[in-house]
Write a structure and sequence with these properties.
It is a single chain. The chain has about 110 residues and is of the alpha+beta class. The protein has a single domain, classed as Leucine Aminopeptidase, subunit E, domain 1 (3-Layer(aba) Sandwich), CATH 3.40.220. Helices cover about 40% and strands about 20% of the residues. It contains three helices and four strands. Strands 1-2 form a two-stranded antiparallel ribbon. Helix 1 packs parallel to helix 2 (about 70-85). The longest helix has 18 residues, at about 70-85.
């Protein structure tokens, strides 16, 4: 059931007509300059998706909207890598990038994290 979901939290619904069996809806914080706990709340979204909703899903897809891309990519890659260490059955994580420049930032961050 998807109702009110607090910032930094996530809920699972069926995929219905999508190819995916399930969709994990996470509520990321609104960027307010970085002094309002936004980075911790964004990291919480990633942890909640993986920790509480993994339950045998072969992959988890995620996106980031309206955040400074360098900060968002760092939080995303770091949090997902740390979470995968605890949830080794996860085979794939897909970072959905909305532009070629966002993709370049994520590719650089992923290369640095190896």
């Amino acid at each position: 059931m998807l109702g009110e979901c607090p910032t930094g939290d996530a809920e699972l619904t069926r995929g219905y007509r999508l190819v995916a069996r399930y969709v994990i809806h996470a509520v990321g914080p609104v960027w307010k300059g970085g002094n309002d706990g936004e980075l911790a709340l964004l990291a919480s979204c990633y942890r909640r998706r993986q920790r509480d909703y993994y339950d045998g899903l072969p992959s988890i897809s995620t996106g980031i909207y309206g955040y400074p891309i360098e900060l968002a990519a760092n939080v995303a890659v770091t949090t997902v890598r740390n979470s995968i260490a605890a949830f080794s059955p996860i085979r794939d994580v897909i970072f959905c990038c909305c532009s070629p420049s966002d993709l370049a930032v994520f590719q650089q961050r992923l290369a640095e994290a190896r």
